[in-house]
Specification:
Strand order of the largest sheet: 1-12-11-7-10
Shape: globular
CATH class of the largest domain: Alpha Beta
Low-confidence stretches: none
Oligomer: single chain
CATH superfamily of the largest domain: Glucose-6-phosphate isomerase like protein, domain 1
Number of domains: 2
Number of strands: 12
CATH topology of the largest domain: Rossmann fold
Helix content: 40-55%
Structural class: alpha/beta
Bound molecules: 5-phosphoarabinonic acid
Distance between the termini: 63 Å
Strand content: 5-15%
């Protein structure tokens, strides 16, 4: 398949050996070998009985239409504020898309210049954050999107109850009209049906961190004014590119092959995603969750247990050049850096090169940003540190849809190479159960007793 002007590209030359030595770079033959091992994986991911439907869901066009229709219905009521309640995968995808595809100052624009409501993410149970938000928002004109696949996540359930009570207090018995729930068959779905809350389906075969391109990630940005059609079209295009690619031309597979060899053969257990655009800061956090929760796993049993998975780190250029880059260039050589950069920004801002900044005359901020990204890649390469670069032609929906699908598929490929399940999260479940036990929830008494018996000694200073 020929690449198009709007396509995402991956540049991997700076991770190869040569030019890097074999201790730190991946040889072309090594990559070919891993790509061979990956050949059956994409068909398996697309099979009807695949453990996750994150790619298959892109073919369910009716789901996309339902999200757009519901977003239009809600937008017609002209809400001024949209509160998105969810956590982990039920929040990050929406935040990525909202932040990247709306005006950079979306929430500060006057109503007349904003294509949709201000957006607020409630992804924690910090009383100062939620309490102050509820003091500030006029709940008579608010819409609440609550997202939980299981319908039982304690943080989401708690925030939902707090917001529901506040809305009911303000508007009375019509409170449910201010809510949309994206959820599965759990308690939230049952409650929504009982109370008459509009619902969108959370696809049963897609897990939270792979759900950015379902209602979980799409509905909030759609109400805020994002046209989600091109986003889904971009996602489908990446899938088509991967399906038709010759070996060595599927960007997700090549990225996975390099990341896998870095982790397992080149002593690089840390994978940094460094995005050179403020609007992609949530993308780096999304990647951290995707990679951490999908690949950080206990593998095997008994004496054969191994603990695998790269440690993901988020960084933002240029800001973190004055923070983490010193560590990346001169600290332990234990990192692969994946840059994300834009070929062009949406705005041109020229720098008036005067006085000591005369050398900047005629340079734009975009050109400076680009030079700094390239400079960081060069500094890493000179220090023998590998990097790859994802390059988007611009910050626009189609290319972003391609990037999300590429990074999700890269993660699924890496899991296949590690021989682990990318789609479960037993470690997260363990924390949830312990929290219920500590809250004294009925049914968790024996867990609580076990926690108390195992409590570490206290040394409190
Ligand atoms: O990626 C995941 O599976 C998790 O981060 C979940 O999204 C998170 O735990 C929230 O779960 P739920 O959507 O069931 O509330």
């Amino acid at each position: 398949m020929k690449s198009l002007a709007g396509d995402l590209h991956l540049e991997v030359g700076a991770a190869l050996a040569p030019p890097l030595d074999r201790e730190h770079g991946v040889g072309r033959a090594e990559i070919r070998k891993v790509l061979k091992a990956l050949e059956p994986v994409l068909p398996r991911l697309l099979a009807a009985d695949a453990p996750s439907g994150f790619l298959r869901v892109l073919g369910r066009r009716k789901l996309g239409e339902a999200i757009i229709a519901e977003a239009r219905r809600c937008a017609q009521r002209k809400p001024r504020d949209l509160i998105h309640i969810g956590i982990g995968g039920s929040s990050l995808g929406a935040e990525v898309l909202w932040r990247a595809l709306t005006h950079p100052q979306h929430n500060l624009l006057p109503d007349s210049r904003r294509p949709g409501p201000r957006v607020h993410f409630v992804d924690n149970v910090d009383p100062d954050s939620l309490g102050s938000l509820l003091e500030w928002v006029d709940l008579r004109h608010a819409l609440v999107h609550v997202v939980s696949k299981s319908g039982g996540t304690v943080e989401t359930a708690a925030a939902f109850q707090v917001v529901r009570q506040a809305v009911e207090k303000r508007v009375g018995p019509t409170w449910a009209r201010h809510f949309v729930a994206t959820t599965g068959r759990g308690a939230l779905g049952a409650l929504a049906r009982e109370e008459g809350i509009a619902t969108l389906p959370f696809p049963e075969d897609v897990g939270g961190r792979f759900s950015a391109l379902t209602a979980s990630g799409l509905f909030t940005p759609a109400v805020a004014g994002v046209d989600v059609g091109p986003l889904l079209a971009g996602a489908r295009r990446m899938l088509a590119r991967m399906r038709s690619a010759e070996p060595g031309h599927d960007p997700a597979a090549v990225a996975a092959a390099i990341a896998h060899r870095m982790e397992t053969a080149k002593h690089k257990p840390i994978h940094v995603l460094m995005a050179y655009a403020d609007a992609l800061e949530p993308l780096a956090r999304w990647f951290v969750q995707l990679c951490g929760e999908s690949l950080g796993k206990r593998k095997g049993r008994g004496a054969h247990v191994r603990h695998v998975g790269p440690t993901p780190l988020a960084a933002r250029g240029t800001t973190d050049q004055h923070s983490q880059v010193q560590l990346f260039v001169e600290g332990p050589p234990d990192k692969l850096v994946s840059f994300v950069r834009l070929q062009a920004q949406n705005r041109a801002v020229e720098i008036p090169g005067a006085g000591p900044a005369a050398y900047l005359d005629g340079v734009s901020l975009g050109a400076l940003l680009e030079a700094e990204q390239r400079g960081t890649a060069v500094a890493l390469a000179r220090a023998g540190r590998p990097s790859v670069t994802w390059e988007l032609p611009a910050l626009e929906a189609g290319a972003l849809g391609q990037l999300l699908v590429a990074l999700e598929t890269q993660t699924a490929y890496q899991a296949a190479l590690l021989g682990i399940d990318a789609f479960d999260q037993p470690g997260v479940e363990a924390g949830k159960i312990a929290a219920f036990a500590l809250l004294g929830r009925e049914g968790y008494e024996s867990e609580r007793a076990a926690i108390e018996a195992d409590a570490p000694p206290s040394w409190r200073i």
